[in-house]
Amino acid sequence: MQIRLAVFGAFRGALAQGELEFSLPDDARVQHLRQALKAHLRRLHPEGGDDALVDRSAFADVFEVLDEETPLAGRQGLAVLPPVCGG
Q1: pTM exceeds 0.70, yes or no
Q2: Topology at the third CATH level for domain 2-81
Q3: What InterPro entries does the annotation carry (predicted)?
């Protein structure tokens, strides 16, 4: 399946575009999308990976924040949400 993932915050600085597309198996879950994002960022920035940022980030669809075991099939409006600090 093709997954479109909107990126925000710190990810926008690391990526030229605001959206990525991944090809994942039909039974993929959030954990697979997280791993695909890590691999993509490592290819772009081999000198310093963003694994820790990806690990601390949440994945969401248009309705809710998703846990690691949530299936991705049929979900729309997927986004990765990095942690935010400040007041």
Answers
A1: yes
A2: Ubiquitin-like (UB roll) (3.10.20)
A3: Beta-grasp_dom_sf (IPR012675), Mopterin_synth/thiamin_S_b (IPR016155)
